[in-house]
What does this fold into?
Amino acid sequence: MVAQARGASGDRRKWIIGIAAVVVVAALVIGGVIWTISDKNKTEGQVINPGQTTSSLAADVTQKRDGVVVTVGKAGAKSTIDVYADFLCPICGEFEKTYKTQIEQAVNDGKLAVRYHMVPLLNDRSSPPGYSLDSANASLAAADAGKFLQFHDALYANQPEEGKRGYDKAQLIDLGKNVGITDPTFAQTVNAGTYNDQINAAFQQIENDPKLAQDFGGGQRGFGTPTVVSNGAIVNWQNQGWLTGVLG
It folds into this structure.
């Protein structure tokens, strides 16, 4: 009888321990799922900080939209580069962090004009999809208001992660206000996706342009971001002296 009681007690302990283990595992899984969802959506409700982007441009630097290309620079700049980038692209973000100050100085000195092509290469890589196109369209609307570079710099300074939530149209509109855009046309353009068709059409041409194709190893060749072009040739921007070479 004593042995039977001990056996029953041992079985209960095993049963309780087993249940406890299941509960712990379930809690860890649920906690992990909640954390993953929270991390994935961490941009939700965030205010995009414009930082100091409004104070860095010289007064005589112009920002002009021509179709879906925005040119930033002074009249008579001797050198021009074309920069093809996606607001979601993490390598584009690194390019901006590394060379923003040098490019900005060359622009302010009147030595360089930059033609920005914001492309929706990673449009399906945000959750939900669409951030690359929405942000590109919003940046063109910001260019119409003379605030392209301020808007551009703020989005890169607060860049969302690839594969996660970007910023919605309301957040992009609020950023426009925070960089000094007061024209109500800006919000209308963002909400309507006014430039979406033009951006997509231009991107299709860019992807099919053999002059913009690069080798990525493993037999892969095609268009990627960021791509920098000077005098019709792709520049190796990973070479730290590339801008000095462009400026001559």
Q: What stands out?
A: The chain has a mean pLDDT of 90. The CA atoms of residues 9 and 96 lie 66 Å apart. The beta strands are 62-66, 69-73, 79-85, 112-118, 214-217, 220-222, 227-230, 233-235. The chain has eight helices and eight strands.
